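Morning run. Coffee first, then this:
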Amino acid sequence: MAKAHAHSWEVTDEFWARVEPLVPQPVRDPNKQYLRSTGAGRPPKAPRLVFEAIVYVLRTGCQWKALPSERFGSASAVHQRFMQWSKAGFFESLWKAGLAEYDELEGIAWRWQSIDGGMFKAPLAQEAVGPNPTDRGKKNGSKRHLLVDGRGVPLSLVVTGANAHDVTQIEAVLDAIVVQRPTPKQRRSKHLCADAGYRGKGAMAVILAHGYIPHVVSRKSEAAQKKREPKKKARRWVVEACHGWFNRFRKLLVRYEKLEHTFLALNHLAAAIIALRKIELPVNIIYG
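And here it is:
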């Protein structure tokens, strides 16, 4: 039974029950004989302990080496397993599974989708990094490009350097949706909301080619509409809210991961948690 007030980094039994079937299993060479002699080292860490350590890092933003050893043991062993799981696509699979459950129980809100990018500092990054045009052109910055459904649940995620303009990534983001949507019966049931950064003939052609009705509105127009109708929110506000949800995971607020695949893995894990948090369940499987 899940605790009523578990910490945000704790993995409840209900959460682990969804994660465990997806954990990559070690691959053994059938042509090799494995011998374990006395004193040959410690046995591998339990997968749940490793996963709890990864969630702890993601939530608290601590360095991998700063993991509490009294709880998780060797931090280097945890990080090594994280790297293995990342390369195996485990975290993206978890995101897909979370979306599948969300779609089954709540239904993905396909009709009104929103797209936007958000920048953040990346002082140690070596891949998917570039000068930040909003931070005096400082060398290291990255950008997260999101496509979300009508409730703000992420459907697509692409990471680039901070110097990659949103409009140049629109096709990559729309092509990277991790779940397949049944073809709508009518075209009017598929709308895409974006700000003025996605204006232009090229972006419009991409939006139309993917079967969307475009709603590209500047912030000035949105502010004027808000003034006329104070209670009405811009439909694309959900994508900005989603970026805010990602920033609640402190490890993602500033990017310290050097490699693109490890940073993407942490983002995929955060996306999975966001999707699962949107499901109305009798027991709160994820707190915070």
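DSSP finds eleven helices and six strands in the chain. Good start to the day.
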